[in-house]
């Protein structure tokens, strides 16, 4: 739960640094102010709403890039596993 609180706090801080009100961001994201407030508080919400707000704040690309498995040494080393449809059976 701590990570969602930090993510929400970072969204809020980004919005404030950009000088955008909750009302404006909510309007641009086509969500309610209450939904934005929940996201900023880290109290849940839809991934779709998170990504739309991240897009309004100009960080959607950063968020997507940060979880790309090929952006890590381990991910690149194990990239061959991405072609599998099922996990290998443990024997």
Key terms:
single chain, 91 residues, mainly alpha, 434 Repressor (Amino-terminal Domain), 60% helix
Give an overview of the whole structure.
One of its GO terms (molecular function) is DNA binding. The chain is an all-alpha fold. It has a single domain, classed as lambda repressor-like DNA-binding domains (434 Repressor (Amino-terminal Domain), Orthogonal Bundle). 60% of the residues lie in helices and 0% in strands. The chain is built from 6 helices and no strands. Helix 2 crosses helix 3 and helix 2 crosses helix 4. The longest helix is centred in the first third of the chain and has 16 residues. The model has no long low-confidence stretch (mean pLDDT 92).
Q: In terms of per-residue confidence, which ranges show pLDDT below 50 for 5 or more consecutive residues? A: none
User: Can you tell me the CATH architecture?
Assistant: Orthogonal Bundle
- Please give the count of helices: 6
Strand content: under 5%
Q: What's the number of extended β-strand segments?
A: 0
**Main sheet attributes: strand count, strand direction, barrel closure:** none
Mean pLDDT: 92
**Looking at this structure, what is the CATH superfamily?**
lambda repressor-like DNA-binding domains
Using the CA coordinates, give the radius of gyration: 17 Å
How much helix, percentage-wise, in residues? 55-70%
**Could you give the order of the helices and strands?**
HHHHHH
User: N- to C-terminal separation?
Assistant: 35 Å
Tell me the structural class. Answer: mainly alpha
Q: Could you name the CATH topology?
A: 434 Repressor (Amino-terminal Domain)
Domain HTH cro/C1-type: 11-64
Organism: Pseudarthrobacter psychrotolerans
InterPro entries: Cro/C1-type_HTH, Lambda_DNA-bd_dom_sf
Protein name: Helix-turn-helix domain-containing protein
């Amino acid at each position: 739960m701590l990570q969602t609180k930090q993510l929400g706090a970072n969204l809020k801080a980004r919005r404030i640094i950009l000088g955008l009100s909750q009302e404006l961001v909510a309007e641009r994201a086509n969500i309610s102010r209450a939904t934005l407030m929940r996201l900023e508080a880290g109290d849940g919400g839809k991934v779709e709403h998170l990504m739309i707000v991240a897009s309004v704040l100009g960080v959607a690309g950063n968020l997507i890039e940060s979880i790309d498995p090929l952006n890590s040494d381990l991910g690149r080393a194990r990239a061959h596993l991405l072609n599998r449809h099922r996990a290998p059976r443990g024997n």
